Amino acid sequence: MNRPATLFVGALRQRLRRELRDVAPGRRLRLQLGVAAVEEYARGHGPLRLLDAGSEEGLLCLRLAQRHPEWCLVAADLAEEPLLRGRGWALEEGLAVHHVRCDLTRPLGDDVYDAVVALESLAEIPDDRAALRQMVSALRPGGLLVAQVPTDGWTPVLRGAERTWRREARHGYDADGLLRLLEELDLTVHQLRPTFRRLTALAQDVRDRLKHRGRGTRLLLLPVMAAVVRLERLGVGWGPARGWFVVATKA
């Protein structure tokens, strides 16, 4: 195989690996929403210093590093194993992402970051107030907070599907309580909107049942999962939401 063909095949394999990481529709949806919110904010602020709080492998940072290599991107989590996977992916793909192991309820610095993103991590932290307080302290004045959390009454669509969030410290949040919590921390809330509706939740339940079937099955699921997320972002869906998406700024 000649060099151009080898490079093409290598790039295609890398692209497929990235897409398979995002095949779960819930993950795909929140990553797309998070990227869109951060990039909209960045248009008025230039290159960002961003913290992905409770990042696991740091998929948000990896995606942003592909699109904005000049940004400073920090993926932080308490669990070492997903951070190690994320470091390996960043090295393999030549992406500048800093993976840091830390307790989010401990000081993260003062006025350090332009943006802090917490996608589905707050529900897993027993002292979520302490974690949010540290995230806000780490933001510069006018800095952006983006979060997604599960709703307090979410249920699966399919019978027998998981009825609890992985590693959940609480089942979720009600809108009024979440809004009060954010405002107590002197955040100006610009968006608090429902997301992850029943169509996406159904696709997530199907994917969870099939996730151990192997790469071939996951590749077949990929276009369906991508289409479901696209439909939700276009406003096509039904039933109650399973998540709240938050965009706020620090005073």
Can you put this structure into words, describing what you see?
With about 250 residues, the protein is an alpha/beta fold. It has a single domain (about 25-250), classed as Rossmann fold, CATH 3.40.50. Helix content is about 45%, strand content about 20%. A 7-stranded mixed β-sheet has the order 3-2-1-4-5-7-6, sandwiched between helices. Helix 3 links the parallel strand 1 (about 50-55) and strand 2. Helix 2 (about 25-40) crosses helix 8 (about 215-235) and helix 7 (about 200-210) runs antiparallel to helix 8. The longest helix has 19 residues, at about 5-20. The model has no long low-confidence stretch (mean pLDDT about 90).
Short description:
The protein is α/β, with parallel strands linked by helices and 251 residues long. It contains 8 helices and 7 strands.
Proportion of residues in β-strands: 15-25%
CATH class: Alpha Beta
Q: How many runs of DSSP E, i.e. beta strands?
A: 7
What's the CATH architecture name? Answer: 3-Layer(aba) Sandwich
Could you tell me the CATH topology label: Rossmann fold
The named CATH superfamily: Vaccinia Virus protein VP39
Low-confidence stretches: none
Pattern of helices and strands? HHEHEHEEHEHEHHE
Fraction of residues in helix: 40-55%
The averaged pLDDT comes out at: 91
* Largest sheet geometry: 7 strands, mixed
